[in-house]
Amino acid sequence: MSNSRTDAVERNRMSWLERRFHLAEQGTTWRTEVLAGVTTFLTMAYIIFVQPAVLSACGMDFGAVLVATCLASALATLLMAFLANYPIAVAPAMGHNFFFAYTVVIGMGVPWSVALGAVALAGIIFILTAGFGLRERLIMAIPDSLKHAIAVGIGLLIAMIGLQWAGVIVAASGTLVALGDLGSPPVLLALAGLMVMAILFALDVRGALLWGILLTTAGGLISGLVRYQGLVSRPPSLAPTFLQLDIPGAFKPDMVAVIFVFFFLALFDTVGTLVGVAEQAGLMRDGTLPRARQALLTDAIGTVAGATLGTSTVTAYIESATGVAAGGRTGLANLVTASLFLLSLFFYPLVKMIGGGYPVTEHVTLYPVIAPALILVGTMMMKGVRLIPWDDMTEAIPAFLTMIMMPLAVSITEGIAFGFIAYALLKLVAGRGRQVHWFIYLFAVLFLVRYIALR
To answer: For 310-431, where are the alpha helices, taking DSSP H only?
Structure first.
């Protein structure tokens, strides 16, 4: 009788899973989906360590950001499962977090609460424009060369910050930057971590970033550069960031460009990831993505929820491709990934140990465990360079300016501004102005007015 009852419970559970996620229709099983969900989590779990380190650099509470990151990731990943039934996990986006911390808060002097308000407004705009096709029109308006250049520029910015956090490059009076002390213990640890991660990537090891971070942490513990703080504890308080967003403050005129960039980055990251992962999974139908609107809505809701909790823009993760490679085809994989994000809340001491900084001087703190991951994330974002038409100077010059200005100005906004202005100008003087969408001209003028006003 006991076995019969157990079998009945199992059949009911499988029946619900089948009805909810259409496993048979997608040619998958619950075991395959579980494996895919774990695989995806392993490849993107580095964000649990990186996000608190990045946002705490601009004054936010490390523990609260950790909780916000895990909760927002779990919520948005579950929404993707139930609204769109895709095995595509969602979490705070790399690149967006650096724009938030280093460009908006540190660079522009905007309070982080106002920056969170700007993130929320960008997410709300994302939601409100869902029924008008505005997002699709914006995607079509931006030239492909600038789309690729923006991704590459963000990668260069992330890599440069990673090199700074590693101590490989340092500030210098005459040349702005110079090579750091490669013989110092924290720099040696960072370089060793970079080598380990690079080898793991070369060997195509799943979760290479996560394993590399853990191995670097072990090296730091042995060398005394990382202090053991325990493994498990109660989750830290969310209070320092929960409901701290300042939406009225984000309505100021000088925040318009910031909100646009948050919206713009979320738009292209989400669409690019959805199309790329869906293509790999065989989910595309006649060149279109079924339930694309639901998937885009998931990111938008996740972004608003994330800002409310206390973290930067949330978007679909390209690392979901590893779960797809492991056989994931439905939202059931996302249920597993989301559960693991929630479980991570109880490992705060481990996260603090990994993401914490190593003070070198009163004004300089290095992050030798996290830095190698940032450098390799930047590496992975370079592939768009080959898709830029370098023989056409009206495309190549704006693309180059977009890419180079982001790391040198430590600003995604400035890279986009230089790219838009150069693209509109060069197409006009070359007699090819009709090739440019009016949207590009509009924002080129707005960026010019902004620079004139800043004089």
So the answer is: 320-325, 332-343, 348-355, 371-380, 393-409, 412-429
* Residue ranges of domains in the chain: 2-388, 389-455
For residues 147 and 314, the model is more confident at 314
CA distance 267 to 235: 32
Say which residue the tokens 């790999």 belong to: 280
- What amino acid is encoded at 293 in this protein? R
**pLDDT tens across 367-402, in order?**
888 788 778 877 877 888 888 999 999 999 999 998
Q: What is the spatial distance between Cα 135 and Cα 123, in angstroms, rounded to a whole number?
A: 12
d(CA 101, CA 366): 16
With b for 16 or more beta-carbon neighbours within 10 A and e for fewer, the 370-396 pattern comes to bbbbbbbbbbebeebbeebeeeeebbb
**12 has pLDDT over 60:** no
Q: Which residue carries 């002097």 as its tokens?
A: 109
- Residue at token pair 């703190």: 365
Q: Is the pTM of this model over 0.90?
A: no
Phi then psi for residue 359, to 5 deg, are -65, 130
Rounded Cα–Cα distance for residues 266 and 25 (Å)? 31
